[in-house]
Each structure stands twice: as C-alpha cells, then as structure tokens.
C-alpha cells in the first residue's frame, strides 16, 4: 500500500491516533520518558524549595537539628541594619545598571540594524561579553584592571591623571561592578536586533514621504513597535540584576567591601548561610528575595499596560 493510501486509511478510521492496546503502550512510554524530568523537578527544585521554606521558620546551623522559631527570622530581618544596607546596594545596582544596559544594547542594535558589512562578525563580537561577563575569570580580570596598578590607572597616568584604586574606594567600587554588568549587553542587544528586523519598512517609508525626521521616526515608530521587546528585556534584566552574585563576590573578595559598598543581597545571604552557618535566617532571606523579585515583576506587568503596545 502506498503512503497516500495509508494516509487515507488513517483519515477514514478517525483522527489517526492509536487506540486500545497501542494507545496504552504509548502512554506508558510517554510517562517512562517523563520520569527523569519529574525526578529532577522534585529532587532539585521543588524539594529544596519546600525544605528552604521550612528552614526559614527555624534556627538551624547545619550541625544541630533545626529548632522551630516561628516568625523570629522575619522580625530579625526588620531590625538588621546590614540587611538594609545590602538592599540599598542591590536596588542602586538594579536601578542604575539595568536602564544603562538596555539603552546601550538598543543603541548598538540600531547601529547593526543599518545593514553594515560584516554584520555577523560584529554581532558575534558584541555578544561575546555576555558569554564571559558572569564568569569568575572575567570578574578577576575586572578586579585587576580597576586595581591601583591596573590597566585603567596606567592609561590615566599616561595622560597625567593620578587615579585611586577603583575597587578599594567605597565611592567607586559599586560603579565598577555596574560597568561590568553594562559590558554584558550582548543578549539584550541580539533580542533588540531581532525585534527591529520585525518592524515593517513600509512604516518608515510612509513617514519619510510625510517628512518625518529620524528622531520622529524613532520615537513614533521604532519605540512603540519595539515596546514588547523592551518590556521582555526589562523584566529579564531586573530579575537577573537582583540575583547578581559572582561579580560582587570576586571583586570584593567575598567581603562585600570596602565598607559594605558592594554588599549585594545575594552576597549577604551567602555570608549568613555558608560563612556563619545561620541557615534558618539565610532561608528567610532567600524567600524574602523571591517576594521582592515577584513584587517588581508584578509592578512591571501592571505598568506595562500604559506603555507597551501590541500589534493585534
């Protein structure tokens, strides 16, 4: 029987789906292949989350059994001055670095979208920092570059400027980490570039006929049609910003210094859990971070109704 005949037979017999014994065998095979994923979900994600939720209401030091303390960890968080400082550092980092990164990524995407020669090469070069930026090696390199005798100060001394150690100064240490984060603009840049390629050129052609300037075309056509992509990048970068850890850990040597100027929330959580073995309090901090990220994400979704435009 030909393939066409077989297809007609399946259509005449119904939807073509197996029935009876064959259907049960396929279902069993499907569930069998799902078992590794289900085990991973329970053992690596859901199980530790539930254990962390329980530990957040206990006093636990990894040595003695956990002791139930109720809401004491939450009350303790309200009076923790160092926690308040870490929240301030993290909020500053997110509120400054995320807009800078998105603006820079959009500017580069606009330049690449103009159809320059060697686009694939430049796209790969600009994306490379995103692959390396969160690595320990790049954080160590960053620390060396912005140290007292680093490359930045050597360049500045060449033009007669005597600069301090940027990572040892409380006024500039956070700025170097923000600069490192902005440097990893490759991923949002690629997403912006894909979004720009989806905007129909007929809109720009019609605007040019009407005499619209480049700035008018950008603010009246590009930004509104790109707003869903901007919103997507904004949510991803805010979530990633609150979870930043490696750069601050390496640049400050794990201390959050100088003078707690780079004490990110995640770094403070790490110190409580793994340096001081205060696992109950660290679990409460982790769940507080979940609620903070959830609140920021919810606010973004609510506010998106006023500035994100979907082409229905």
UniProtKB/TrEMBL annotation:
The chain crosses the membrane at residues 31-57, 91-112, 124-142, 173-196, 217-239, 282-303. Keywords: Cell membrane, Membrane, Sugar transport, Transmembrane, Transmembrane helix, Transport. CDD domains: TM_PBP2 (cd06261). Its main location: membrane. It comes from the Bacteria. Residues 87-302 form the ABC transmembrane type-1 domain. GO terms for cellular component: plasma membrane. GO terms for biological process: transmembrane transport. It is found in: Cell membrane. It is a multi-pass membrane protein. Belongs to the binding-protein-dependent transport system permease family. This is Multiple sugar transport system permease protein. It comes from Microbacterium pseudoresistens. The lineage of its organism: Bacteria, Bacillati, Actinomycetota, Actinomycetes, Micrococcales.
